[in-house]
Fold this sequence. Notes:
By secondary structure, the chain is an alpha/beta fold.
Amino acid sequence: MHQSRVSDLLGAHVSVQGGVQTGPGRGAAIGATAIQVFTKTPNQWREPDVSSETVSAFRNECDRTGITNIVSHDSYLINLATPDPVLAARSADSFVAELRRCQALGIRFVVSHPGNFIDEREAGLRRNAAAYTRCLETVPGPLMILLENTAGTGTSLGSTFEELARLRNEIGEHVRHRVGFCADTCHLYSAGYDIARDYDAVWTRWDELVGLGHLRCLHLNDSKTPFGSRRDRHELIAEGSLGPEPFRRIMRDPRFAGIIKVIETPKGDDEVTLDRRMLRRLRTYGRTRAR
């Protein structure tokens, strides 16, 4: 399916209402060649088991649709940087459960927001790295976690390139090869990286500090808020404060050709029409010359 576009690795975060096995079909319905899913309800602690029947149905749907480039996003409740020992233990248990579900399903990447340090940034960063290390040790295998840059709201870690690089470098060397990155365009812009007017400089700086070789996923989202707002509010592609140019350039940038690109933009009423429109828009950018 979609053989002419199978190499573009472009899609959306899709609903899995009715079970995770419904995700690939919803991706196919919007013309996606890659998708992002939740493997559980993201704002609840309940950890569902993945049955052998679900695994089989999910993999059959991947085969049927041809969508095999799939990333998961971890729960919104997880905070691996917290100083609260109860929340830290619960977060680690939840993250391990996420890794195990993804491993069973054959999902290769788990996108994870670095935690909120709450008390002191340096201590929070050390706690965050130590927790990622322990979780990866608990679930061995090829599965990778992708640290997502944040918008810089409150006490969140990971809004600067320096901090992202530091977090990865603090993770145990024996599991560090299983740690990559997901770059969100809205978060970059909100955190003070002007990819709209200084595209080349931003990605040069990323490469110098974080490394483009560690980038495995891009979240393509416009922003409802102005540059440097430190707010995480996604808008439709080219209809927010970033405008079309950074997305046009990303879609034509050979450095990102083999990287999964996922939109997390507003869905509208039917969860199909706007996603289809955004993916068509991005593919058109990829076929036309940048200004």
